[in-house]
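Per reviewer request, we include the raw input and output of the structure prediction for the construct analysed in the revised manuscript.
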Amino acid sequence: MSAATTRRRLDIKSFLANNGALVGLVVLCLALWAATPRFLTGPNLLNVGIQVSTIAVMAFGLTFVIVAAGIDLSVGSVAALSAMVSAYWVGDLALPGAWSIVVGLAVGALCGLVTGVMSAYGKLPTFIASLAMLTIVRGLTLVISDGRPIPTSDSVAFLGSSLGPVPMPIVVMVVTGLIAAFVLNRTVVGKNAFAVGGNIEAARLSGIPVKRVLVTVFVISGLFAGLAGMLLAGRLESAQPTLATGYELDAIAATVIGGASLAGGVGRITGTLIGALVLAVIRNGLNLLSVSSFWQQVVIGVVIALAVGFDVLRRKNVRH
């Protein structure tokens, strides 16, 4: 075998290792196009974009936590509380609706701050800290709402409308994705998150404020979760106490499918977006093919298991 052939095979192997989710998404789209001509139509693709927007925005923030070798199970509940407080601000308190988005974002950031402090300074594992926050926040959502939906403000409802022919959720997803990619790849916050996730002890010895980094990534995760909650509430035109239930699992799956490592130190916003698209396309395609929602859960579970298994094998290869 010539050196050129060997090099070409190594290049192909490296491309597939780094862009497996993208290749899988393309293959998946082609397969669904062959299975049902309705898949690659304008209205359906816009529908996929709207469906993926909430999970993608939530997963963008979660990527920071996973890169720093943490996990945040509370993002779905934080999204619900942010949307609920935002709606309660206008509906029950009769306060200015223009501030409702700011209030929702602040609630998300505050939840992330509390989780980060519990983990960084309280020495709780991120799994336990975020699990506790999941329960607390969902309970607060039910207390505030008294178990009833609350109409959103016009500002939040605008997030669920359209900007010309393009739905606003897609616009928000693209803008937040660009911001998240810039922060993760081009700022000290992102570089420190990679350092902490790659080797926390080495990061500490290098003078990186590890505790502050952990708190910061959880605040970012909460901020994006708050925005995701208001995106979903804007589409429904109401904040509901059961909003975004189970969305944390899809957000985690999107980051892992997109190439982020649960061991930390690896992750890309573009990969997270692709992972979210993979999940949305699978669900959309199965709906078009009239597959039972029960079987859809089975398929999604298999995809998540394969993605995590691939991550484990990749880390073993790197280690050896």
